[in-house]
Design goal:
This protein has one domain. The chain is built from two helices and four strands, in the order βββααβ. A four-stranded antiparallel sheet has the order 1-2-3-4, with helices on one face. By secondary structure, it is of the alpha+beta class. The chain is globular, with a radius of gyration of 11 Å.
Length: 65
């Protein structure tokens, strides 16, 4: 099911960076995110809910231009 919040995500295991591209076009990198958390997000029914409950506020982030 397509997410109404997350357009797509990219994970870089070498830096444990999870890049989230939002439907709005904004891009954020969250790091360090364990690969297991990324795998859980990939499997989650609602990517937006998972993002809000398990990523935001738990991992440092930076906005990507």
């Amino acid at each position: 099911m397509p997410s109404s919040v997350v357009a797509h995500m990219i994970y870089k295991p070498e830096t444990q960076t999870l890049r989230i591209v939002y439907v709005s076009g904004m891009v954020y990198d969250y790091s360090p995110v364990p690969e297991s958390v990324y795998q859980e997000m990939k499997a989650a029914f609602s990517k937006g809910t998972f993002l809000n409950e398990k990523i935001k506020g738990r991992y440092p982030y930076k906005k990507v231009n």
